[in-house]
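Q: What structure does this chain adopt?
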Amino acid sequence: MQAAPDLFSYRKFWAHRFGVAPELPMSREEMDALGWDSCDIIIVTGDAYVDHPSFGMALIGRLLESHGFRVGIISQPDWTSAEDFQKLGRPNLFFGVTGGNMDSMVNRYTSDRKIRSNDAYTAGGEGGKRPDHSVVVYSQRCREAFKGVPVVIGGIEASLRRIAHYDYWSEKVRHSVLMDSKADLLVYGNGERQVVEIAHRLADGESVKDLIDIRGTAYMTKHGRREGWWEKDSTSVDTPGKLNPPIDPYQMQTEASCAEEKARTEQDKAEKPAGNVIKIHRVSPRNADKTVIRLPAYNQVKNDPVTYAHTSRILHLETNPGNALALVQQHGERDVWLNPPPIPLTTKEMDAVFDLPYSRVPHTTYGKMNIPAYEMIRFSVNIMRGCFGGCTFCSITEHEGRIIQSRSEDSIIREVEAIRDTTPGFTGVISDLGGPTANMYRLACNDPEIEASCRRLSCVYPGVCKNLNTDHTPLINLYKRARSLPGIKKVLIASGLRYDLAVLSPEYVKELVTHHVGGYLKIAPEHTEDGPLSQMMKPGIGTYDKFKQMFDKYSKEAGKEQYLIPYFIAAHPGTTDEDMMNLALWLKRNGFRADQVQAYLPSPMSAAAAMYHSGKDTLHKVRRKGGDITVPKGLKVRRLHKAFLRYHDPENWPMLREALKKMGRADLIGNGKKHLIPTWQPAGTGERGEGARVSRKAKSVQGNTRPFKTQHTRPGKTKVKAARRRR
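A:
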C-alpha cells in the first residue's frame, strides 16, 4: 500500500506560539482571552461541543491546534440567518463544516419518518437544534457570512453523500452533497490526513482550487476528460473476464483461478503455498495512478434504480486504499471527482491523535446541562477504528474503511488512567473498551500484498477469510492489564461483538464472560433466516448458537447468572413475511420478548439502501433481468414485520392474526404453547369490538411485562454509542 507522510511531520504554523487552549473558543470573548485576533480555521458543527476524542469536532480541532493553527468552534448555530456564522469573525484559511457525529436526517427522524423528540448530541437532549441536511444549510450560510472563504465539508453526513445517493426521507436520488452545498472540497472517511494537508497547503498560499490531488477528498470540476488520465466506463467494469491482456482493471481472481495461475508461476508457488491463501483481487492497470472510473451520471441514476444499484456496487468495490481507483460522476455541466480513499493511520499516529490535550468534558458554556451522548461515552475508551465486517445496512465500513487501525496498549492504558484521575463522577467502572466493534483490535490480513489488492466486501462473510489473522491475544492482554489497574473496579465491554470471530478464540470468550459482562451482553444476530442474513452479509444463526453455548459455559464456570440480549432488524431488504414469522417463532421458543424493536432504515450510500431502492441484489453483478430480491416497503408491511418481533404485545395480535391467515398459517393462532398468538383479545387492546371476554390469562399477560429471565431490548442509547465512532 502507498505510504503517506507522517501525520505530525509538518512544520508547525506560526500561530503555535499561542500555546494550547483550555478549550477551543466558541466566542470572541474567549478568543480575546487567548490573545487571538482571528481564527485560522472555524469548525461549524451540528453537535454540542464536547472536548473529547469521540466527538469529531474536538478531535479534528485539537489535531489542527497541534499543528499550530488557531481553531474556533461554532456549535449548533441558528441557521435561519448568517449572523451566528459571523460571531468568530472571518477565518484566515477555511470553514470546516460537519453535520456532527450522525447524519442529520438519521439523527432527527425515525425509520418511520417521524420526528424524534430528542437529540442525544444536544445539551439537555433538546430536539430541533440542527436543520435537515445540515451540511448543505451550514455551508450556504458560511458563504453568506464571508464571501470568498473556502468551505470544506466533512464528517459522516458528507462522507456518505459524496456521490448521487438515495435519500430515504424524500424517496428520491439526490445530487452529491458537494454540489448542493457548493463547498470547495469534501473530505470523506476519517479526515485527519486530509484536513492537515488542506490547512498547511492553504497556509502556504495555495488556492483551494488547486487542491485536487489529496486522497480522501472530492471536488467539482468542469465536465469532460481530464488531460493525462485514462477514463474507464463503469458499465464495462463489472464484468468477469479472462486474466489475459488487454488488462481490465476490474478482473477478479477466485480461489480456482488463483490455483491455475500458481501452477503456471514458480514465484507464486514459492510465495503462496497451496491451501494457505484465497486471492480475490484486481489486476491493476499499468497506469493505475492515472486511471479514473466514469460512473453513470446523475441524470442516469436518478430515474433508473437498476443503474443506481450498479453505481452503488462499483463505489463499494472502490474502497480499498491499496487498489482503489479515482471515480468521477457527471452532475449537469460539472463532474464530481473522487480521489482514492485516505491511507489509514499507523498505530503511532493513532496514539498521537488520542493523546492530544482534550479536556474530556463539555464546553463550559453548557454549565451543568446534560448532554446524553457525552454521558454515554465519558467513561469509555476508543481502542480502534474501522470494520471489515461489511454489514450491508451499516455505514461504519463505508466511512471508516475495512482496514483496522489500532492504538497501542500503552496509549489506551494512559487514557484509562486519565479517566480515573481526572473525569468527574468516575466510580471505578470503565463502561467500554471498544470501537465500531468490540473485538477487531489488531486484527488484519496476514499478507500485506493480498490486503492491498483485495476486493472482498467482507473479511468474515460468507465465512472468515483464510488470510485473516483472528488472534485475540493482544485484546485479551489489554483487558487483563486494564482491569488490574489500581482504582479500576470493573471494565465492561459495550461495543458490538462479532461473535463469529469470538468463537474462534475460546480464551477471549472466557476472559470476556468472566470479567467484562455486567449481567447482560448485547450481540446482534439481526435475523435467524438465511434470506435476509445473506443480504445483510451476516453469519447464520448457528454461529449465534455456538457462541451462546460458550457464553453459558463460561458464565457457569464463573458462578455468574448472565444473559445474552440479541438484537434483530425488521423489514430489511431480502426479508419476507415468512422470514419474520419464523423469527417470531424462534423468539418465542427461546423466551425472548422485545421491548423495543428496530425497523431497517436505508442510510445514504449503504449497500442495503441500494437494494431497498432498486430491489436488486447488489452483492453480485447487477443485471436488468434477474437478481431481484424482496423489499418490504410501505408502512403496512413495515409495521407487520415489527409486529412479528413484538408477537407478545396484544396491540399487535389483530394485525398478526390477519397476516397469518393470509399466509395459510392459521395453525399458529391458538391458546397453546405451540401457537404464536392467542385467539382471544384483551379488552381495550387492538381492534375495537374484538374479544370482549377478558380471561384471567389475558389479565395476567397485560400486567406481565417481563415474564422471562432473558429479555431483548434495543435502547436508543445504543445507537449513540455506535455513532460516536463516526466522524
